[in-house]
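---------- Forwarded message ----------

FYI, see the TonB-dependent transporter Oar-like beta-barrel domain-containing protein record below. Original note from H. follows.
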Amino acid sequence: MHSTIRTPARRLLSTALVSCLMLAAAPNVMAQSANASLRGQVSGAQAGAEVTATNVATGTVRRGTVRADGSYSLMGLDPGTYNVVANGQTQKVTVTVASTSTLNFAGAAAGGTGTTAATNLDTVNVVAPTLLQEVRTSEVGKTVSLQQIQTTPQVSRNFLEFADAVPGLIFTRDAKGNTSLRGGATNADGTNVYIDGVGQKSYVKGGGVAGQSGSAGNPFPQLAIGEYKVISGNYKAEYGQVSSAAVTAATKSGTNEFKGEAFYRYTDEDMRAKTPAERQGGKDKMVSAEKEYGFALGGPIIQDKAHFFVTYEAKRFDLPVTIAPDGAVTGAAGLLPPAGAAGLGPASQPFQQDLIFGKIDFEPTDNDRIELTFQDRDETQSQFSGQTSPEAGREVVNTDRRYALRWNHSGERYYNEMMVTHEDSFNNPTPLTLANGITYTAPDGTEDRTVVKIGGASALDSQVKGQKGWSIEDNLTLDGIQWAGDHTIKMGVKYKAIDLYASDAAQINPTFTYSLGDPDFPDSIPYKAQFVKPVTGVDGVSGEVRSKSKQYGVFIQDDWQVNDHLQLNIGLRWDYEKTPTYLDFVTPQAVVDAIYSQDPRGPAGQTYADSLALGGLDISDYISNGHNRKAFKDAWQPRLGFSYDINADEQHVIHGGAGRSYDRDLFDNLQLETTKLALPQPTVYFRNPATGTCINGQAACYDWNPNLLNGIGNLQSLVGSTSNAGLEVDLLNNKLKAPYSDQFSLGMSNQIGDWLTDATIARTLSYDGFAFTLGNRYPTGQFFDDPRLCGGTDPGLSQAWSCNVPGFGSLIIGQQGIKTRATQILLSAQKPFTQESGWGTSIAYTWTTARHNRDINEKYAFDRGLIGDYPTIRSNGAPRHRLVVTGSYAGFWGITFGGKITLATPTAVNDWYPVPQASGYNLPTPQAAVPNANGKFLLGGKIFGYRSVDLQATKTFKLAGDTELYARIDIINVFNFDNFSTYNYVKSNGKLQASYNETGEIIGTPRQVKAEVGFRF
């Protein structure tokens, strides 16, 4: 029995209904492809009667028929506004990205399932999907509308920034201008973004999206985005290669009218406050500027049949950054020589980007749509910050070029989508300076921390990494299957052939390291040097590698509407990948022989492999003969969900789900087994001239000679042209799997008047994250022991750094075992913006408790012998409390105002603490510390670690016809809150303590004004 809702005035209800629909997010996601569906009941219509939906902008038509039970469905609709005609009635509605909307004609549905209560509008009943928050879905997520994109203040024209207002998501712009989007308590690697159904996944470097690793740029032009949906958990089976947040975006298309727009956005140092580093000592502001500009143009090629759309956006930045010592040794800055001191302080970092997107669509019939899209990204960025001075920085050329051809075909009860794509994405850093690198460090009581780097960048800053290849994908959706309710079944298959490239270093720029304030070593000579030296006498390795990877994916998904109340979402996915560089690798015989030779530090007859085994490390698990590695075949991913509409009126819906999602191992890790050994970077230590000893009791060291500064060849000759001593050996486990997450959620969505609310508790368990650990062991088998057992000169307790593979250097092993456990409470409330009310708002609160066994930003773990030996500590992936409030208001004089408030408590930091042992020495032990909050907001004390209030105002001036000009002002961080991102550490009383470094870098920007002008026609 459907509930009855009192009918207001027809005109008022019609206007409100259309406004709501134009901004709404509908239940029951159909596809990552961003297409929408319409379904409902047509009472009184005969079976076989036609239902049509005509896109009012493009003139394209989709047709369906009424079934015997009065139901109908229209699949494969591009997001947009449609005139829908059935049973002699017409209604204009708007469908949104990746949604299914319900539209009922001529009274309440008779005897059908899957219907809900409706607002009566004469003979037309429309169920208006909720705005931004889907109600009848098991997925955890939210839709970001075009209205939000246009009215929310924005620090950078990166369309992913608006996902920050989704509970569980964090968008960050760091001190270097680099942006990232993270979900839960993990890093950005687990995310994936789908543009019109095409995944933008990075297979080589981190960052989740290709090209986003350490980039200040945008993955896609914002002018081309219509709207997008963010799913933070329990996505359906069609979503692959994702273990964190999934973003599916719909791009704009050309229409039957020529439409265009252009904009120019600007800010500079005169329009911002000083950074904390610039305030110190009354320094002048560094020259900085941000210019963003672009245009979009679309229109008809053939009226109602074919259209085009093209957009271009550019960035030209000079970003202020701060060079400051590590937080544990800030006092050592006073010990620097003049050249080193000159490297500290504020600096300006240039960046430029060009983005192009083009689309042509063609509808030869009412049942077919063909789209051809092209996107191009080209950017150059100088990178330096932290402890790296501008001269020691690097320049990164980042390119990403993609093509996609899509054919959509719809029938009476099915919809098929086929896609062929090609991608070419490369990242190429090179040092800004070709010269010796100079690094100044200082001891913090246990280890040396970096104060500043000057001179040339490391040889590791000369790389080429990328991916290039094609894919084909086909997805089939079957609708209207009747069995104990209504079933919509979607199935798909995908094949991708992708070449993965990596070159990891070059024979340039040796680095010399000096220690400041060390009583046991003078600061007049370096205590160590690191450089590239080609390996000799080792077969099967190369400084450059190309792997012809093959990827396969299949899925099936059943969205089962059991009755008016209950919907079940049952899916299964399987992914498989073959990466020959890993699978076919043969451990060089010279390395195998060395590992199974006599351990020179052990008793007679004890091989190096025996020493490893004494420590619980079976090295045979890491030695490959080219046939004992198999691609991971067990990536089965069941995904189950439900939604229960208590009153069958979409007012109160309980939802939940459980599912597994596999990601993939980054090629940046897999390739090191080949490239690292070909061009390793050995480290040599130098003796104290006064004592004849090495720093920290290092075993093997050399006499210092100033001639070593005169070319890398002198350093290479120091260790011998035919010697491999000191050359690192990287080996990977023979049974690598793929990282994955198990996700669980339970929540309730509500519509309360104009407000849409949701409360969800989500639990995510992530496993098999990849890490490199030190494989070296003392002859006792211990990872920590007396360094004198391996030739050291001083007693103590330290890692087995000097217990190298005989004839080589350290053994570094790649394995899986990083784990993260996160529980989140996700609360949201939205009041949709409508022209009638003139305002809208969204509130997103996230409570997080998370623990893990490794820093989310670290893949190297040298504090324990195996990643499984690491203790579980509080995660640095998310703050305990985070609140984001956005709003827009149609104000006086035709000015549209927008605002955003972001508040977060301090995020934990991960480091280590020297725990005293019975031997009298200290054991480095990973710990977490939460910095003391440094800010308050309105009421209460200092409880926040991040605060920002952002405002914008836009005034539009109407000209002739549809032409309009607009002027916009954004004020970011209105109150100039300092949101510090670096820390000072104190290690005392048995625990790690941290505080914000108030002269260091910040997250986001100081108070900044951005001015924008533009026009539309």
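H. also flagged this: Residues 1-31, 108-133 have pLDDT under 50 and may be disordered.
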